[in-house]
Amino acid sequence: MVGVRDVTSRAAKRYIRQALEAGEIADCRHFPAEDRAVDADFLRSLILGGLPTGMRIVGLTIEGALDLRDCGSEAQPLPALRIEQCSFVAPTPAAGQGALSAVSLDLSRSHVASLSLHGSRFVSLCCRGMACRSEVDLTEVGPSDESGLCWIDMSNAVIGGNIVAVGAHLQSPPNDPIESGERLTCTGLVLQEAEIGGTLNLYRSKVIGGLSLYLARLKGDLWLGQCRLVANNGWALNANDAEIGAIYATREPLFAKGCVALNGARVRSRINLENARISAGETIAVSMRKAYIGESVSLENADMEGRLGLAGLRCQGDFSLLGARIVSNDRDALLARDAQILGSLHLSIHPRSKRRFSSKGRVILDGCHIGNDLNLCGADLHGEFEEIEELGDKQYHSALLAADLRVGGCIKLGDKSELNGGQRSLCSEGALRMQRVEVGKDIQLFNTKVVSIAPRKKVRDAEATDASGSAPDNTAFDLSYSKVGGILIIGANDLTGAVNLYYTNTDFLWDTSNGYPNADLCKKDDVHLVGFSYRVLMLPDMEDLNDPANLRKTVNVRKAWLERSPYDAQDYATLARALRRSALTDEAREIMIARFVRELAMLARGVNDRKAMPSKTGVDETRSQAFWQRVAALALAVPSYLFAQLADIARYVVMQVYRLTFGFGLDPRRATLTLLVFFVLGCSVFADANRKKLMIVDQQPVATLSDRSAIGAGLTNEVADNVPCGDMIAPSLFALDVFIPLVDLRQESKCEIGVAEGTRATASEADFLKFFKAFYAFCGWIVISLSILTFSGFLQRRNELLGGDT
Fold first, then answer.
1. 8 Å CB contact between 694 and 761
2. How far apart are CA 797 and CA 783, in angstroms?
3. Which residue from 118, 294, 403, 529 has the highest number of Cβ atoms inside 10 Å of its Cβ?
């Protein structure tokens, strides 16, 4: 049998030599399968002996390793190597050597005109540092034995054309578990630091062990359509710091089990991985940290199990996650801190498949810069993790974190479009926290459902737990310290938690009553408006109707709106200015009056709640004090307590009188009524006094006679100083003359208070009338001055300008 095999082997070798020397393809498939075996040294001698058209063989079984290391040069490369549909029988590794030492074909540091292994079977191909002038064809390569191992190492290779590996089946031995601090590796197809002049095509290929493009340079594109990348204790794709023309998986989706890493990569065109399926378990599914993308990125309808990391990303176009699903077992689903996206970021529903964007874990956009829009219409956010954010001694539960976000266009957190089954445009389990945001156009919170989870106080030890340390009201939507260049839209929402607009600024406010938390279900202070400023109210009555605004309802709903927020005088002034700009002057006045009414209620609560002795938090400390020490402390505290109480009560009484008479200097109707009351009062009192002869002619030298002993009015030949005024004055004009300061109606100078002759009135009645006249004149100074300020609108404008701080 051995002799027969030698004969057939010599026949095959003779055929191969003759065909290759004649410049033909040595197709050995017409030989029986058992007669196709040749040793690798025979082929090596042919290749190095010089062939007119290169090594072109088909259907051989090559025994042993074909060692072509360091062969050829840049000036005289090896001829074209076309070893197609051949099977390499690799030698058994020596004792103590791993499976990676078994090399079927070794072209390390060789120079080759071209290389084609189309349909061949081998264990490993080593081409480290190889230089190939044209393309490398690895189409449908695969393992040669039942072990299933077939891997390729082309590190530092220089390829002048494309690398085509369509339908290839590669698998490397499992890597040893990675120790802490070591860098993950890919061993299925290794192109680390390689330079490829064309495209890398892995369509319909399967690479178990991962694809490494670390520091590689691709002038063309990376095609991953229907490619399966499976990691072995490493990455599925390592393209860190690589340069690639574009990455596509458009015809059929990419499947990756393990991390797809593009950290620091530079993609000159775009990335399109629509419908991709990437599963990384508890690690990062896709990482583009500090990557540069020349155009857009599309992960539409992609399924990612693991985090999507975009920290420091620079994308010159849109980043689309329409219909994508991210399920993270970590607390973060999408991490894009300090990312820069010059187009739009779409985290929304896909228009064709109607599949919603979904994330389990936080979406973090802190410090992100988006040139156009941020769109979350048709998104489901799930941030229901415990202990995920710590501020001070509180733990907050958030679904979206976007502090210091910059958006050139709009932020769309839901819209008015109708969805199937009455779905909300945006559903979030966890708060939407967007502090210090700057938006060039609009922010829209519409048709959104947010279920916030109240913060918990961190417990340092078992003894630190205190039931009195209750958490503040939880926040559903936080837009504090933000600036909106266009319209802030808040409407038709279902919010469980507070809305925080603390020191937010916008030009236009479009809001409805149902845009805020339900006032019947939420606690007090569920809308934070402290420092919130806006120029124009687009819906003064908070109703999205085509009819004109209901002016009476405007005052009521806006007062209730302000009362849901912690008190701040500036909030009332801001609303009043906005109403005045809408020509709602009376409504603006009512809002400013409501501000002072609320202050009075707060003052009354302060008087009621003030304690002579502040309550001690430490019960044991209070008990340890001696009785006389407590008495002494109480004696020292009582005077200041009484003084404060009396001062506040006096202020309360004065302000109530001011409210009833002038509406805090803002209501001309009350001022008019006050003037009429004082006029009628004065007219009645002075008319009654004149009728009772308690008003006598004023005794002045210019109107009297003198007889050396007395001065009085001239009556016949007698001097009298108690002549009643009678018809000399009109009581109404006399009252006006006394009441109005700096105006002389020549009534007060004619008569004075006194007891006339022939009257039954007493001197005490005259004294009381004198006191009333002085008090009436004093009130005139005050009432007339305040009336002028009220009618002129000076106090209203001042309060609106200074926020009520007078």
1. yes
2. 20
3. 529
Calpha distance 118→130 (Å, rounded): 18
DSSP result, 484-540: EEEEEEEES-EEESEEE-TT-EEEEEEE-GGGSPPTTTS-SS-EE-TT-EEEEES-T
Supply the DSSP symbol for 236: S
Contact criterion met (CB below 8 Å) for 355 and 389: no
Query: Tokens in use for 51?
Result: 């062939």
Cα–Cα distance measured from residue 503 to residue 403, given in angstroms and rounded to the nearest whole number: 15
Residue 100 DSSP label: G
- Give burial (CB, 10 Å; 0-12/13-18/19+) of 44: middle
* CA distance linking residue 474 with residue 542, whole number of Å: 24
* Residue 763 per-residue DSSP state: H
For the beta carbon of residue 175, count every other beta carbon within 10 angstroms.
17
For residues 535 and 575, is the Cβ–Cβ distance under 8 A?
A: no
Residue 392, token pair as written in the block: 């001070």
- Rounded to whole angstroms, how far apart are CA atoms 782 and 739? 10
| Angle, CA 135 vertex, CA 130 and CA 137 arms, to 5° | 95
For residues 337 and 466, give the distance between their C-alpha atoms in angstroms, rounded to a whole number: 36
Cα–Cα distance, 666 to 799 (Å, whole number): 9
- The tokens for 806 are 């007078």
Q: Quick one: tokens of 85?
A: 């549909």
* 800 neighbors 576 (Cβ within 8 angstroms): yes
Which burial class, exposed, middle or buried, applies to 705 when counting CB atoms under 10 A from its CB (0-12, 13-18, 19+)?
A: middle
Res 176 pLDDT > 70 = no
State how far the Cα of 559 lies from the Cα of 579, in Å rounded to an integer: 12
Written as one letter, the residue type at 104 is: S
**Residue 134 contacts by C-beta under 8 Å, 6 or more apart in sequence?**
113, 114, 160, 161
pLDDT band at 227 (very low <50, low <70, confident <90, very high): very high
> Residue 459: which pLDDT band, with cuts at 50, 70 and 90?
very low
Phi–psi pair at 454, nearest 5 degrees: -60, 145
Closest by Cα among 318, 309, 210 to 263: 309
What distance in Å separates the CA atoms of residue 28 and residue 59, rounded to the nearest whole number?
A: 5
Task: Yes or no: say if 252 and 225 are a contact pair by the CB < 8 Å rule.
Answer: yes
1 burial via Cβ count (<10 Å: 0-12, 13-18, 19+): exposed
Altogether, the residues listed in the chain come to a count of: 806
Q: What is the pLDDT of residues 286-298, one digit of tens each?
A: 999 999 999 999 9
Place of tokens 């801190």: 337
H/E run at residue 445: strand 443-446
| Tokens, residue 709 | 């002993």
> Which helix (H) or strand (E) segment is 381 a member of?
strand 379-382
For residues 154 and 191, the answer to whether their CB atoms sit within 8 Å is yes
Question: For the residues 121-150, what does the mean pLDDT come to?
Answer: 91
**Count helices and strands in the chain by DSSP H and E runs:** 11, 67
Dihedral Cα 778, 781, 782, 788, nearest 10 deg? 160
**What is the number of other CB atoms lying within 10 angstroms of the CB of residue 637?**
14
Strands 66-67 and 37-39 come out as: unpaired
What is the rounded distance in angstroms from the CA atom of residue 325 to the CA atom of residue 671? 65
Contact 511, 488 (CB under 8 A): yes
Spatial distance between the Cα atoms of 530 and 572, rounded to a whole number of angstroms: 10
Task: List alpha helices for 159-221, DSSP H.
Answer: none
Encode 573-585 in three state secondary structure. HHHHHHHHHCCCH
For residue 488, the cross-strand partners are 443, 509
Q: Is the pTM of this model over 0.90?
A: no
